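Supplementary Methods S3. Complex input for the LLP-bound model.
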Amino acid sequence: MRIHEAGAMHGDFSALSPAWLGVPDDVNALLPQLWASGVERSDEGVLHIGGLSVDELATEFGTPAYVLDEDDFRARCRAWAEAFPDADVYYASKAFCSKAVLRAAAEEGLMVDVCTAGELAVALAAGVEPNRLGYHGNNKSQSELRRAVELGVGRIVADSYTEIERIGAIAAELGTRPHVMIRVNVGVEAHTHEYIATAHEDQKFGFSLADGDAYEAARRVAASPDLYLAGLHSHIGSQIFDTSAFEVSAARLVRLFAKLQAEIDEPMGDLDLGGGFGMAYTSQDDPQPPSDIAASLGKIVQAECDAAGIGAPRLSIEPGRTLIGPAVFTLYEVGTVKPVMLSQGASRLYVSVDGGMSDNIRPALYDASYSATLASRSSSAAPALARVVGKHCEAGDIVVKDEFLPADVAPGDLLAVPGTGAYCRSMGSNYNHVPRPPVVAVRGGQARVILARETVDDLLRLDVG
Ligand code: LLP
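Predicted complex, serialized as structure tokens:
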């Protein structure tokens, strides 16, 4: 294919780029809502985090690397805890799980949500007290349940009748009385900007509210001498911006809560509204501050409780993405730049970096959008419509589908992709035998590795022949 002489700078971008992506006035500008608070571009044009330049970080730790602004993460934890002073905020460790991050969350006053023996082990290694843990999962193994009960985990969220029986049997054998919550399928499935309410969602999690299973499950827990009914739980989806979806779910949970509380002697535990609060990946995302979310959720719970004639139960929430997502960017080195002509006179710059779908599967899996910036320098070149792609042997190996980068982006440049804290490292793979990047935490002007870079030797160690 022949490249148009004017290359990537030429052409009508509007036909190739999504409607939300405008040509930037300044291709070097950083949109504040996409970046951790400690990130800025210096007068020389180099991206810095906590005073450290990305050049220094790349030299010391190599690329690709996830770079965490630890103070930013801690500030987000505090902001959510302060917005919900009378609620428990659980950090959903599935978003990103490491000892340093779970320890930081705990130090900032958060509880921790785990859903496997692996996440539990990291939380314990981080020093999180078992009674400050919530344990989720639709298929916890017998040994996972036993360990949770033995440890005295703060709450186990039951997801099936089978699980209620298993927890009851373990509790009877061990002579303890674990706190069990019921995961309720409230019939609200929320997506980014809209939600649909169905009578019965066709998915694996929870007990259906509409079918009466949630009621029945809660009654069984309450009736068991070996179990304490620690409350009701729902999680309606992820990357949600519209609080009305939470309001519908909260209203339904409160009604069930009130009905149960009227029938059960012992005071029930709390109402957990789950996680799923949206964060900004691109200029099209506009998340609400936690204080606004807290205010609207508090209002709806109070109104429903008033209507039901009960006192408001204690609330809990489980944000993951909104806490860790914006606190991290991924630093890549550009390997090749290839203009590809697409239609009359317009071309797209394919910018290949040294990572890809193994360190961020979200674009391939969910068609997720990200942003990127040239990090090692600023540029006076015109913006070019670019696609940042990885090094994997797959055409769908896309890191940033649509972004304007300076047209002179070149091999050896560093690129930074913000908003990669959640579900990138935690969903990373070794596809094509690419070792996973390290996570470097920056705090107080110091950088330290909190998750080491994998090596090919690590992969070969498991390949026992
Ligand atoms: N609580 C429960 C019970 C959950 O299942 C989840 C996420 C959360 C809390 C935290 O949700 P968050 O606030 O992080 O959205 N891999 C997908 C997201 C899957 C979320 C699964 N559950 C992604 O990359 O978008």
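Residues 130 and 151 are 6 Å apart (CA to CA). The first helix runs from residue 54 to 61.
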